[in-house]
Structure formats: structure tokens, C-alpha cells
Amino acid sequence: MAREIVIAPSILSADFAKLGAEVEAIDRDGGDWVHLDVMDGHFVPNITFGPNVVAALRPHSKKVFDTHLMIAPCDPYLEAFAKAGSDIITVHAEAGPHLDRSLQHIRSLGKKAGVSLTPSTPESAIEYVLDKLDLVLVMTVNPGFGGQTFIPAQLDKIRAIRKMIGERPIHLEVDGGVNVNTAALVVEAGADALVAGSAVFKDGDYAENIAAIREAAKSGVAA
Ligand code: DX5
Ligand code: ZN
């Protein structure tokens, strides 16, 4: 069955001096979701922005705000990211001991709950929380930076998770090194949402870059 593919440009690679305009640009230029990478300098070796920035960006687009929390602990900040206007809040399975509780908390805030797995975390980490999930995010680079090289070993994990999801209405998102060369591979393995940072923002032509990734992704969709 053909699957709708979501393209989620990551503003990690945007010009931080004009983030509002950048969000408007990816919205106008064909991005489906806005991917917001939150980093704390503790869970990952980089720092980006917090809930105040997400709230400031909210009026700049009506599209889905896909918030990827690379922070530990995450629980004390879930409410702030919900109030800031996130639609999906994704936490890392490695970020705390009580993933089930974090997912329940996100849904209790009226938001869609996602879990992300770093490259070394096996798919079994989500086996017992599947019914509390709206999205699984497979990292195809080690989280922390844009512009890294795609790790092909993650394709087996994507395939395994697509099987685990079965008929459940759960998005399978892939993040890291997604570009015109890797998009078809991840979609063929079962992904339906593609995050792309540097491949969208690498030059000024966001519309062309988003369209090219979407076109490449289509060749991975099973007929
Ligand atoms: C990395 C972030 C990604 C990042 C991807 O930790 O989670 O969302 O922006 O960047 P690219 O697409 O350049 O690999
Ligand atoms: Zn991300």
C-alpha cells in the first residue's frame, strides 16, 4: 500500500538570526512539518534552544511542530514544550529510566507522543510502549549536529520497527543524513516521515531541495 511521505525540514540548519522568517520559508516552500531540535549540552554535545523559542516561532506557521527533545531529564520540561505549541513531542529512550511515564505525560498534555532511538539502541526498547506511541524516530546519525553522514546499519532497525508497528497509526520518522541519495532507502525500509536539515538549507533554494527529497523518497514507496 502506498504511504504518504512527510518531509520535515529541521531548522537546526537554518539561520538562527532570522528563525521566524526561516520557518515561514520552509512552510511556504513545501515542508509538511517543522522539525525543532532541542539540545541541552548534556544528553548531546551541543546546545540549541528551549520552549521560549518554540513559542516565539509558533505564530510563524500553522504546520505541525515536531519537537525533538535531545535533553535529559526531559520530564520537567514536557509541559513547557506543550504550552509553547508543539504538536508532537519526541523524547529519547536513552534520556531517562521511565519512558512509559514520559509518554503518558505527553499524551496527558494533549500532544502526540514520540520516542527516538540513537543508533546504538535496539528496537526492543519500544516493544512494551507501542500502544502509547504516535511516532517513532530512528536516528541515522548520532544526535547533536547537522550535516553528518547517514549510518546504513540503521536500515535494518527501520525495517524491524515497521514490522512492530503493524496496523497501528504510528509515524516512523528518520533523522540524520537524509538527502536525495538516502531518502529512497529509508522509505523503502518503511519510513514515512523524513527529517532533513542540511539537505534543505544547504543553499537558498528550499523549494527545490524539499521537492527533490520528496521526489527521491517516492522511488522508495512500494507500489
Ligand atoms: C541531529 C538532529 C537532526 C539534524 C539533522 O541531532 O536531530 O534533526 O538537524 O541534520 P541533517 O539532515 O543535516 O543530518
Ligand atoms: Zn532531530
Oligomer: single chain
Per CATH, the superfamily is Aldolase class I
CATH fold-level label:
TIM Barrel
Put simply, the count of helices is 8
Question: Uncertain runs with pLDDT below 50, 5 residues or more?
Answer: none
- Global mean pLDDT: 97
**How many distinct folded domains?**
1
List the ions, cofactors and other small molecules found in this model.
Answer: D-xylitol-5-phosphate, zinc ion
Would you state the CATH class? Alpha Beta
Give the termini separation: 7 Å
What fraction strand? Answer: 15-25%
SSE pattern: EHEHEHEHEEHEHEHH
Please describe the biggest sheet, giving its number of strands, its sense, and whether it closes into a barrel.
8 strands, parallel
Question: How many strands in all?
Answer: 8
> What percent of residues adopt helix (DSSP H or I)?
25-40%
CATH architectural grouping = Alpha-Beta Barrel
Order of strands across the widest beta sheet?
1-8-7-6-5-4-3-2
Structural class: alpha/beta
Radius of gyration: 16 Å
